[in-house]
Prior knowledge:
Layout: E1 4-8, E2 12-18, E3 24-30, E4 35-40, E5 48-54, H1 56-65, H2 73-81, E6 86-91, H3 103-106, H4 108-112, E7 115-121, E8 124-127, E9 140-145, H5 147-159
Antiparallel strand pairs: 1-2, 2-3, 3-4, 4-5, 6-9, 7-8, 7-9
Amino acid sequence: MEIRRTALPRIGMRHELTTQSGRRLGVVSHRTGRRDLVIYDQDDADLARETVELDGDEANAVAELLGEPRADHGLEEFHRVAEEPVTVKLTIGDDSPYAGRPMGEAGVRTRTGASVVAVARAGRLFISPAPSFVFAPGDLVVVMGSTDGISAAADILAQG
């Protein structure tokens, strides 16, 4: 039986197989530890008919039910910690509590571990802005960090 592996940039890895009866199944392993069990449509190989989201413990339990020994939890922790940094672009909205305020007041790096690495404004790019850099509505903020840190930074810049 052939298992096809496909790297999914910034997401993780997808493993797929086709059963003897012709059904296509897949597992998407996210770098966060989440797993998505995917059952594809029999007539359209690109259409996911059903997706079941599993956390790490649930994925291990399903693997055990299917006859696979439980995965080492330390390895899962290693993958979480060793995750490569993610870079995203966030926009400072008109209603952001930090529009018109210095970047340092947001405390993004201190509060999330993610870093603001650049800000684009009106065709200009500000690389490694200082804490005194004042955000303006419409600024495109480039943030780098873990997926959790990026998510927390987005919340801070949008809601405070």
